[in-house]
Specification:
The complex is a heterodimer of chains A (289) and B (329).
Chain A (H helix, E strand, L loop, with lengths): L1 H11 L2 H23 L32 H37 L1 H16 L2 H10 L6 H10 L3 H14 L3 H8 L4 H9 L4 H24 L11 H7 L9 H28 L14
Helix pairs in contact in A: 1-12, 2-3, 2-12, 3-4, 3-6, 3-7, 3-10, 3-12, 4-7, 8-9, 10-11, 10-12, 11-12
Chain B lengths: L9 E12 L2 E13 L4 E5 L6 H8 L8 E2 L4 E4 L2 E2 L5 H7 L4 E4 L13 H12 L4 H14 L5 H4 L9 H13 L5 E5 L7 H18 L2 E6 L2 H4 L5 E6 L2 E7 H6 L4 H8 L48 E2 L5 E2 L3 H4 L3
Parallel strand pairs in B: 3-9, 3-10, 7-8, 8-9
Antiparallel strand pairs in B: 1-2, 1-4, 1-5, 5-6, 10-11, 11-13, 12-13
The chains are: A mainly alpha (289), B alpha/beta (329).
């Protein structure tokens, strides 16, 4: 994928892309390496003596009401948040691309039906759909949460892909492929999909930020990631009652959410410019070697 | 029709492509008949809007909606009726037996794939070969269409190639499944004059060596001269004159064909003003009654209110004009 390399390079050339990428790398590195170096996030070494410790040498982010290390928990939460968001976006982008390709290329009744369904789904707030789905569960398993986040997030993507396909299918290379005997599936997968990769990449990146926020919100409501698995939203929920006495217990997970989403959005903005061939310094669609 | 003895490779009879529209039915192709023999080059000449490109698309059954090929049309390839084939049977005709080169080499290649892969893809769509073998054949095809350093160029993306090189790649893709018929729709219109000549040379050579039949669609009589075996001139959705090329150039009979010749600058003979054909092609929703060229024709007379059929006017020479009947020219 030299195209991808070209796009990433072009994004890196922009300040927003660089800041976003560095922040994201820091969060990702912490999420990967952190849990190996830090104390067990679930360990409660001394509930009576070591609870509510303010940030200091032993515990840089302090401890919570159960004497658990807040830094360990924030870092483990990063792991969960990033994995949930990445997998959910993978699901939603796949569905969105498939629906958009089908509707855009086949057109006619297929297009009308699919797009009316999308319109209907978009008329209901995503959070509301999720609350309805999650209310059924007492304790939702993580894979189900990922699936729900994924299957409620593709409506906008499908519209975007459909629009791209409507534009692309008028291009001569599509009629050329038809004239050489290519079938529908071949045209959709070999000719149309690769040409929508740029916008799709941008949409996916920005979606990651949305899903992190959404997951944090749901976890804060107690409907998302379930304890004892640490999550940023869940940590803020846990520290609701001690917000005044031990503010660090909610401040650090809150900052983690803020920084991560900011990083994703900054990087997404830089990508938007990078995949737009009309902007200077962007790689051509195929990327120059 | 010529060649009654030999069965033609491709035979088109009474081809009609109609487009329903708010302004009425546009009869863009309206009763076109011609034969194409094995290894033969047929020039199809006409202004834009005459229906020549749609005729080519109709042969592949790729008329853009809402256009429709009307029921009375017949297209047969070696006696097989193409219009009654299923869509998947038709797909194995496209590219494999009849291939097309489109007009614009700038947009006719997929921008995100290397050109070698695009040629290889054409091969793999119809022939069962390994990826590697397809790639090797692709390089061979690129060499055959006159691309220097074909192995190196195979790795290039379309935007890295010039217009002439891209059109050569398009030809290589069209040839990838070794079709018997090549439809070339204004293959050189978008190119520089010098490059035009090179591309036409490549087409000539390929038809010669592969024994491929060529339907060369153009608005430029200069392109068919010395290249096509026969020429059919289209006007307003119909063929108005058909003759062997030398015969047509020596003795154009239809006033429209004569008008086309008069609007080309000549290097030999007396210097005179060019005479363009007056007016424009009428809209396809409202062809004139009688002879369709009547409103623009300098030689119009009473009988032109009746629509003329294609009339014989010499050996293998047909023309859709009443003038050949009475010798009133």
């Amino acid at each position: 994928m030299e195209w991808l390399a070209g796009v990433l390079r072009a994004a890196w050339r922009r300040p927003s892309g660089r800041i976003g990428a560095v922040l994201l790398l820091v969060v990702a590195a912490a999420a990967i390496v952190g849990p190996w170096l830090l104390p067990d996030p679930a360990a409660q070494p001394d509930v009576l003596g070591q609870a509510y410790l303010s940030p200091g040498l032993g515990h840089p982010f302090g401890t919570d009401q159960l004497s658990r290390d807040v830094l360990s928990r924030v870092v483990s939460g990063a792991r969960i948040s990033l994995v949930v968001a990445a997998l959910a976006v993978l699901v939603s982008v796949t569905i969105g691309a498939a629906v958009g390709l089908t509707a855009g290329y086949l057109g006619g009744a297929t297009d009308t039906i699919l797009m009316r369904l999308v319109d209907a789904a978009r008329a209901i707030p995503r959070l509301f759909i999720l609350l309805l789905l999650l209310a059924v569960w007492e304790r939702i398993p993580l894979p189900a949460l990922i699936l729900f986040l994924g299957t409620t997030g593709w409506f906008g993507t499908s519209r975007m892909v459909r629009g791209e396909v409507l534009r692309l299918k008028e291009e001569a290379f599509v009629s050329g492929a038809e004239a050489l005997g290519a079938g529908r599936r071949r045209i959709m997968l070999r000719h149309l999909l690769p040409n929508t990769m740029g916008p799709l990449l941008v949409a996916a990146t920005l979606d990651v930020g949305d899903v992190i926020l959404l997951e944090a919100g749901l976890s804060f409501l107690g409907l998302g990631v379930q304890p004892p698995t640490p999550s940023w939203g869940g940590m803020i929920l846990d520290s609701k009652s001690i917000l005044v006495t031990a503010p660090w217990t909610s401040l650090f997970p809150g900052l983690a959410i803020l920084l991560t989403v900011l990083a994703v959005n900054l990087f997404g903005d830089a990508l938007t410019d990078a995949v737009d061939p009309r902007r200077e310094g962007s790689p051509a669609p195929a990327g120059r070697p | 029709m010529p060649n009654l003895i030999q069965t033609p490779l491709l035979s088109v009879r009474d081809l009609r492509v109609y487009f329903p529209s708010d302004a009425g039915v546009a009869r863009a192709v309206d009763g076109v008949s011609f034969d194409l023999n094995r290894g033969e080059t047929l020039g199809l000449v006409g202004e834009s809007g005459s229906g020549k490109s749609l005729t080519a698309l109709a042969l592949l059954r790729l008329v853009p909606p809402p256009g429709r090929i009307e029921r009375e049309s017949r297209i047969t390839l070696e006696g097989r009726d193409l219009l009654s084939l299923s869509e998947s049977e038709m797909r194995s005709v496209r590219g494999r037996r009849i291939a097309i080169i489109l007009q614009d080499p700038m947009t006719s290649l997929n921008p995100v794939f290397r050109v070698g892969d695009q040629v290889a893809e054409g091969i793999r769509a119809h022939v069962q070969v390994s990826r590697r073998e397809a790639k090797e054949r692709a390089v061979e095809l690129l060499r055959e269409v006159g691309i220097p350093d074909p192995a190196g160029r195979a790795e290039a993306y379309p935007h890295q190639l010039s217009g002439g090189m891209r059109q050569r790649v398009m030809i290589a893709i069209a040839l990838s499944a070794e079709p018997e018929i090549l439809l070339a729709d204004e293959p050189t219109t978008a190119l520089d004059v010098t490059v035009q000549a090179q591309i036409l040379e490549v087409l000539d050579r390929l038809c010669e060596t592969r024994g491929m039949a060529l339907l060369l669609i153009t608005h430029d009589l200069g392109i068919v001269a010395g290249r096509a075996d026969r020429v059919a001139v289209m006007y307003a959705g119909q063929i108005v004159e058909e003759a062997p090329t030398a015969e047509l150039f020596a003795r154009p009979l239809h006033p429209y064909t004569q008008g086309l010749f008069a609007s080309i600058p000549r290097l030999t003979g007396p210097v005179g003003r060019l005479t363009p054909i007056g007016g424009t092609v009428p809209p396809a929703t409202a062809w004139p009654s009688g002879c369709r060229f009547r409103p623009r024709c300098p030689k119009v007379f009473e009988k032109c209110v009746i629509e003329p059929p294609l009339l014989p006017a010499g050996p293998d020479h047909l023309t859709r004009c009443w003038l050949v009947e009475g010798g009133e020219r």
